[in-house]
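# step 3/5: fold
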Amino acid sequence: MSWIKDNKFAAMLGGATLLGALVLFYVGINFHGRYSKALETYLGAAEEVKTFEEIPLYPSVSNRQGKAKALNEYRTAITAMATAFDKFRPKDLKNIAPQSFADHAKTANEEATKAFEKTSTKLPDGFFLGFEPYTAGLAREDATGLLDYQLGATKELMIALAKAAPSQLQNLYRPKFPEEDGEKFQAGPNDATRSFPMEVTFKGSERSVREFLSTIVNSPNYFFVVRTMRITNEKQVAPNVKDARFEAPPAAPGAAKPSADPFGGAGGFVIPSDEPAAPEPTPAPAAKPAGAKPTGATPAKLAIPGAVPARPAAVAPKPAAPKPVAPKPVAAPAAATAATAASDSSRILNRVLGSEELEVFLHIDVLEFFPIKALPEVPKSKP
């Protein structure tokens, strides 16, 4: 105690130093854990940022500018596609009086019926363009706008079928849509069109089917979509050799009577070895030399092989033999030319060429395009 009293300054300095060391030790121990935890959090975040920077779509300035450019290009493409279908988008489907729609349906049915009569197409009984329920009653007024739109599409479809000249229209079925029965139609959030389906069944040649499909896909007023198509051949049994019946080509005036050749003579198949040979020219008789004896009463001697003929006493000089006259070319019969234009009506060729009739079933949708929805603006990229 005397040393502390004698050395107060040194004792106070030592005590303060010890106390400071204890405080520093306590603070170091207390904040070391917090520092270690903060360092661990920082290193984890840095590693995560490094991982994000390595992915293709990291939200960097360059990537953000590229995304804005891609969105603008997509927006331009969508706008161009929507504009391309503007002609198939009805301007305004206003409801009309039920009696006015009935008059429109009657007029449209008469036009379609006359078009089918021109091509002698057989129609089903009670044909009325698929709107048969409205021959006995009037439509609901709140559905006449859509009905009139579908009526115009159906009329165009049937007139196109009539121009293709099928042999028979077997069926035309149009299912009702909800508004016809007083119900409401609810479109999906992403729907751009509404479909009005119908089913058509007809019989005709392959040409009529091709012309009908080519016409409806190029319609300038309505957008038709063929959802289902089923084609059935009229003949279900495959042809065999017994079905072959070849017709002889028509004979030209003055031509020779055709032979019994099943291939039609000159108009069918000609084998080179069977061609008739050209007639050989007949040599002219040699002139008799002066002083020669007549040989009319002398029988001709047979030439014996190997025998040496007797040498005459005097041999007269041989006169120059006349040149053989070339035969005139034989003209080909006129039936050969006509045979190339003649058509073969054998059952096999008819089936192969598609001359038989086809039964065609089509499920066709008429699309009504909804008004264009405004697209959200693309935010501009900031540096």
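# step 4/5: annotate
The CA atoms of residues 286 and 321 lie 7 Å apart.
# step 5/5: archive (pending)
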